[in-house]
From TrEMBL, chain A:
<keyword id="KW-0853">WD repeat</keyword>
<dbReference type="Pfam" id="PF08145">
    <property type="entry name" value="BOP1NT"/>
</dbReference>
<dbReference type="GO" id="GO:0070545">
    <property type="term" value="C:PeBoW complex"/>
</dbReference>
<dbReference type="GO" id="GO:0000466">
    <property type="term" value="P:maturation of 5.8S rRNA from tricistronic rRNA transcript (SSU-rRNA, 5.8S rRNA, LSU-rRNA)"/>
</dbReference>
<comment type="function">
    <text>Component of the NOP7 complex, which is required for maturation of the 25S and 5.8S ribosomal RNAs and formation of the 60S ribosome.</text>
</comment>
<keyword id="KW-0539">Nucleus</keyword>
<dbReference type="InterPro" id="IPR019775">
    <property type="entry name" value="WD40_repeat_CS"/>
</dbReference>
<feature type="region of interest" description="Disordered">
    <location>
        <begin position="1"/>
        <end position="99"/>
    </location>
</feature>
<dbReference type="InterPro" id="IPR001680">
    <property type="entry name" value="WD40_rpt"/>
</dbReference>
From TrEMBL, chain B:
<dbReference type="GO" id="GO:0070545">
    <property type="term" value="C:PeBoW complex"/>
</dbReference>
<dbReference type="InterPro" id="IPR010613">
    <property type="entry name" value="PES"/>
</dbReference>
<protein>
    <recommendedName>
        <fullName>Pescadillo homolog</fullName>
    </recommendedName>
</protein>
<dbReference type="InterPro" id="IPR001357">
    <property type="entry name" value="BRCT_dom"/>
</dbReference>
<feature type="compositionally biased region" description="Polar residues">
    <location>
        <begin position="439"/>
        <end position="448"/>
    </location>
</feature>
<feature type="compositionally biased region" description="Acidic residues">
    <location>
        <begin position="328"/>
        <end position="339"/>
    </location>
</feature>
<dbReference type="GO" id="GO:0000463">
    <property type="term" value="P:maturation of LSU-rRNA from tricistronic rRNA transcript (SSU-rRNA, 5.8S rRNA, LSU-rRNA)"/>
</dbReference>
<feature type="compositionally biased region" description="Acidic residues">
    <location>
        <begin position="579"/>
        <end position="588"/>
    </location>
</feature>
<dbReference type="InterPro" id="IPR036420">
    <property type="entry name" value="BRCT_dom_sf"/>
</dbReference>
Amino acid sequence: MAPSTLDRKRKAVTRDVPEHSDIESEAEFGDGLLEGILSQSEDSEGDSGDEEEDSEDEEAEELDELEALDSDEIPSENGEAEADGLNGDSVNSKSAQDMVKSILGDQQTLEDEQDIPNYTVVADANGGERYVYEEINPVYDSDDSDAAVAENTIGNIPLSFYDSYPHIGYDINGKKILRPAKGEALDALLDSIDIPKGWTGLTDPATGKPLNLSQDELEILRRIQTNELPEDGYDPYPATVEYFTGIEEKMPLSAAPEPKRRFLPSKHEAKRVMKIVRAIREGRIMPYRPPEEQKEEDEEVHYDIWQDEQPRPDHVMNIPAPKMAPPGYDMSYNPPPEYLPTKAEKQAWESTDAEDREKEYLPTSYDSLRKVPGYEKFINERFERSLDLYLAPRVRKNRLNIDPASLLPKLPRPEELKPFPTVCSTLFRGHEGRVRSLAIDPSGVWLASGGDDGTVRVWELLTGRQLWSAKIGDDEAVNVVRWRPGRDAVILSAGAGEDIYLLAPPIVDPETDAASREILDHGFGHATNATQTLTANGARKEPVAKWTRPGTRLEDEGVLIKITVRTTVKVISWHRRGDFFSTVSPTAQRSAVAIHTLSKHLTQIPFRRLPGIAQTVQFHPSRPLFFVATQRTIRSYDLQKQELVKIIQPGARWISSFDIHPGGDNLIVGSYDRRLLWHDLDLSTRPYKTMRFHNKAIRAVKYHKGGFPLFADASDDGSLQIFHGKVVSDLMENATIVPVKVLKGHKVKSALGVMDIDWHPKEPWCVSAGADERET
Amino acid sequence: MARIKKKGVTGQAKNFITRTQAVRKLQISLPDFRKLCIWKGIYPREPRNKKKASKSSSASTTFYYTKDIQYLLHEPLLQKFREQKALEKKIAKALGRGDGHDAQRLERNASRPEKTGKTKYTLDHVIRERYPTFIDALRDLDDCLSMLFLFANLPSTPTVPAKMIARCERLCLEFEHYLIVSHSLRKSFLSIKGIYYQATIQGQDILWLVPYRFNQRVTGDVDFRIMGTFVEFYQTLLGFVNFRLYTSVGLVYPPKFDKARDDLGAELGAFSLEGNGVGAIEQPKQITNGENKAPDPKLQAEIDKLMSQLNNVEKEPEEESATKQITDGDDEGEDEEMPTDTIDKFEPAAPGGDILLQPSYSATDPSTLFANFTFFLSRETPRQPLEFILRAFGCKRIAWDAVLGEGAYTHNELDPSITHQIVDRPPIQVDPDNEATTEDNQTAQKLQPGSRVPGRIYVQPQWIWDCVNDEELKRPDLYAPGAQLPPHLSPFVKKVRGQYDPSAPLNEQEREDEELEVDSEEEEEEDVEEDDMAVQKPKLLTNAEIDETAEGMDIAGSDDDEDEEDASEGEGSFGGFSDAEDEEEDEATSAALQRQRELEAELTGAQVEEKVIDAKANAKKKAAKKAKEEDEELERAKMMMSRKKRKILEKMVYSNKKKDAEAEGLRSKRRKIEKGGKGAARA
């Protein structure tokens, strides 16, 4: 169908446009169109059928384009036909049916034509089917028309292969070419006796017939043999035809007389000659002189090239070549004797490669000038210099020609930084195993310590005498000891395992002792109330911590309260007023940080979730801020507004401890990855100074709280480093940090050195806890 | 969003161009490019980031500044190169066709500088471009002079045509003549490489090196084409500089050159200078590129002085006209002007003002250092440098042996006017009887070898150089023939604190505790060595004795010391042992003797020694403590530095330490030498 519609469409396109505009007459026009198609198809059935088939694909492709072209027309036609059918308009429907029929018929005829086979089925020798195709009848102007008719198609195969067959090959149609009939052997013999003219005895491979030469061919052969020209009628020596010769014509081509100028000397030439003559007379043209002499004559001209010199500033990028270094003393022909190389130096110079030598010459002394030889490498050095001048890339390099001492930062003298701890004055021996924690009490008289042996000991700081000891952890180490701030009472807190103990060591006068016991006991009424909280479903919630009395044995020793939390307590940090303290148990999931109220025996968990493992906490020394250190960051929270204030990012991998400057604006952070970081809280969340002077992890850092600008850190490498860190109240000035002293006294035991450190509240003394000793 | 910047169109990628790209852009061959670079003073650069600068993935080695190459694009020389190339092609084509005549005709147009020494092009404009002012040219004269002086002393080869050498020589001699006339040579130094000269012209210090007159060793790895390109440029440059210099002192350039005299080896004497009748060009202002805007007053004063001296010299009688004829046209008495040119001394009128520094004059004028002397150069001395240096420092009459060439004041060694004779030969001991007999049949010219003309000073050549460098006449007896010369020191070394200075006494430049350290070290050494010394001692002594006897026999030995002694003491101590000789001999054994003495002292009075040791140990301890403290301090300070600064500091400390170690090595060597000398003296 496609081709026919296409034809129609083509027609439609070629027809005049106004016809389509008349919609009413469209059906008739449609008829006419269809008829035209039919006739056309009938006409072209015979010859254009093939072409149409061939071009079907192309046309199918073109169809889209064409459709796009007459998109107004064709759908409307079809649609109208359909609509007419629906309306039941007989004439129109008839015509439409006609149209359909005719189209169908048209198609059928086409299909019929295509279905006629061009072969006949014949039974072959075996009785099977055999298709015998019609002979292809090339049309007159087919390509094959001028091909040889009965050409043997066997190709480049020796004819002898076909000796046993009756045929000698196949023609272009696959038909056997039968061997031409040969006469009897006798006939053949006769033939051979009676050799016809032009007989060669050869067989034409193309035809299989005997190859005979014609008369002409024989004639050519004869001519070649007799050294004659092979072609007949060719004249190698034709007679000269004299087209342009000296034969004088009788009549001149032009009858004009010879002009006068032919007989007169040229004026132009005379002019030119005169010009030359004049030039020679005037001396403009010199007689010839050999060029060599001229070259000898002309000297280079000298003039003042800087006659009108104009200073021109150098281009910014221009780098003038550096001058050669002037010779030193050692280059003298007679240098001072100390410049002469010793034997070893000489040998070293001679044994090194010429390129590696520091100097290209060896200082030599000659006792008189006449003994000085020529310098062997003179030309080479000059050559090197010229190479340097044009080949060496030039770079401007700033050479710092200053005293290196000026680069060093101006540090105050250590004498000016005094006092700071310098020597170990007291050793406190008594603990078995490691001392995990220590603290000096607010009055600065006693030192409390706790260690792996589960005891808490209180020492006299100045003498190193042990005053009191209590074994609180039965099988657990005392992880932390801290004094309660404030001079009104003497209360020590200690963490061993999951228990926090509040102790009132009996080392003070009775009044103070009583006061401290009173403070501790005061909250027992509140505690019960506080633990009565219920969960949402009504079940009694497990209290976060239990405040109990530790039992009579311990109570006698002065241990008054035992607070049991869920996991091991590692850090205790007191609020400056002494009513709150916070504990950290890093292993706990939710209750890692707990804040305990001493007066109410109340424990609260301020954070339900923390980003990371809580390491340590601190109360701000003056403001209601609470600092929590996780592994990577330190967060400060406002306790009143209950919101996050700041996240400090020291950049350490694992913070071990931190401390807040008594001024409250600076922070030091120690980390397990050997860094000590000073933060200025006003400046940035990043460290102001990073100090990496330890070889091992830093365990503890502490500021001096009593007015000295000192801070110290304790590391696993067994050393304490004391720094001078002065904070100026002026906002414009940064803190000055000066390393002051490295104290080494602790031995490293199982990769642990100094565990904890604390400063005396007033004096520039510090104590540290190590494997088994402390120092001031 | 801003437009995305294309890569490689701005910044370093655009500012730098590789050599290959440059050559392509200019469309010339690599040798031509090299020539252009040399003449125009274009050199490769080091981009700050090589990766950014190069567009290719492979690492290019040489980068040029793109603007430099752009500037080459308009170079007229480029056109000349192209013309030459086209001509070469034509010649090659003609030869290929077998058209000899045509080739010859074309060949006539071609420039063959290697044959003729002349080129088709001139480099004048290049000079003008590279050196916009004369001062700029002077500043760049170091390499120029070194190169031309070297080429003046080279033998001619196919690559170095004789004409080039001759021209170099002429230019150099002309320049020397200017220095002589203007007295601008300042210093000179005899090194193992050659002779360094330093001149100061218009405030610019020019330092160049002249090789000793020997056949230069030419190795295969020297490309004379490159050197030749440089020489071509330098010749042009020095030609213009010479012209300017000559005209500035009122001389005609080029000076008259007497070929006949030059063939006789007159060298400097082959030129005759003439005044140009205009007089010295007054330099109204010195044009510089703003680096030293204000002319150095001291220098100006010196130049003025020189100018006045020059005029004085020209008026002097025709005595020196044999060597150079300076006939100056203007005989205006400029003596009145002289005092006004010099700087007045400002004395503070009232106390309380700041004291401003003023240049001071040296007592003796260096340009007249040798003015009153007549020198005679022996035939073994290097004539050229001596003649130049003597003339440059005011000497008018220089005589030399006839073998040294033409141009001498006289060839007669016995001329009575000669005051100084420069000798560089070992003194020969002459039998007095023999001398007496030969005195009679001597010619007037020839002198008996070894004998001396009375009334004149004999010195070695180094005397001249040391006098010149110190701007004073040195004691000639130190430089007498055969004497052990004092060390010849480089005048170009600037004295830097902390660096070793051989002219200063040792204890002045030592650190406080250096001697102490060294002593202690030596003591330790002594302790170790004492035993074997004791064993060795007798042997050494016998050796010395043997040596002494041997020396006593050897009369005709050419020992310098011996001869010196002879000269000073007369003929009394012939063949005997002079004191100095003894000293030398004992030098070797002195150390052993001293140790022996110390041993004895130890045996008798051990206590005295111990005390000394105690004090020393204390001092040592203190020093060590101090050093330790300082170390700690440094360590603390370093802890507070940033890593970058610390690295800079460490580098500086390293280099300083290296320098210090060098200086200390020299000091310790000298200490050893001095001790050795002292020990010998004591013995």
